Description:
By secondary structure, the chain is an alpha/beta fold. The protein has two domains: 7-142, Rossmann fold (3-Layer(aba) Sandwich), CATH 3.40.50.1980; 149-292, Rossmann fold, CATH 3.40.50.1980. It is built from eleven helices and 13 strands. The protein has helices at residues 30-38, 58-61, 80-84, 106-112, 129-142, 149-166, 194-201, 222-227, 251-254, 256-259, 273-292, and strands spanning 7-10, 16-19, 26-29, 45-47, 70-71, 90-95, 118-122, 173-179, 184-188, 205-206, 217-221, 232-236, 261-265. Strands 8, 9, 10, 11, 12 and 13 form a six-stranded mixed beta sheet that branches. A five-stranded parallel beta sheet has the order 5-4-3-6-7. Strands 1-2 form a two-stranded antiparallel sheet. It is globular.
Amino acid sequence: MREQTVWQFSDDRGQLSAAERRPSKVLAYVQAGATLWDYGIHPWGIFGSGHDGDDPDRAKTGSLPLTEVEYLGAGGVLDVDTLLRGGPDLVVAVSYGGGHVYGLAPETAKHLEEHVPVVVVDVGQARTLTDIGNRFAELARSLGAEEAPTATRDLAAARDRLRTLAAGRSRPRVLALSPAGQDQAHLARPRMWPELRVLTELGVDVLEPAAGPGANWSTVGWPEVTALRPGILLTDIRSNATPLDRLRSDAARSALEPAAAVVPWNPEPICSPQAHARFLTLVADAVEAAQGR
Length: 293
């Protein structure tokens, strides 16, 4: 009798998913799908969260070939029947803590697991970006991915370069924010975002908003943003954030433009070595340019 191959994986809830064969038709939350793609796994489909719309958010999709990956939608359209359309044999979701599946209604997530294995990776503030990346790497290897030593070397080189630049005599002030319309912006609290914590660990001067309401963000007006005198703006480029070039011109915001370099930032980062190296390289380029001014 032919030997049966059994696949299994214990996710960040401590829940074991198992199947008689290795899953090959993976449906994933867009962040997870883009990460798995960088690790060499081709997801069959992706879905978004309540922040997303009828089309996938290109800020989150990374290198995914969107003509080859089906997008099932986001928010209220994501019922069990929609998610099971096409017959996925594994769903990969993310959580921001407590094991709660992000992007799906609790009842939808519960009933989904009655039909198909669901693996949840915790991407919340309690985890380091390295820990998150390692978990995706373990999942990808279980699904047949091979090691990518070049990507690991590129990430190490990007980290070393940024650390060296951040140790220079001139340290530009870096502010991470999500523009929220004409009158205000959400300022990120660096300690709550794994990718921003990496910057501080490497010596980058990431500004901390004043204490107040909001665990992850501090919402302020544009004059308060200008008063912080950032030299580099890490600006949220997700579709639910307001693009800077669509904001009307006013004295407070216009004062930022000649003084601060703008670096695109996705608060739902792709957690692969390749993607993280690209982000660190953008920040390093901005730091180097600021030091040369």
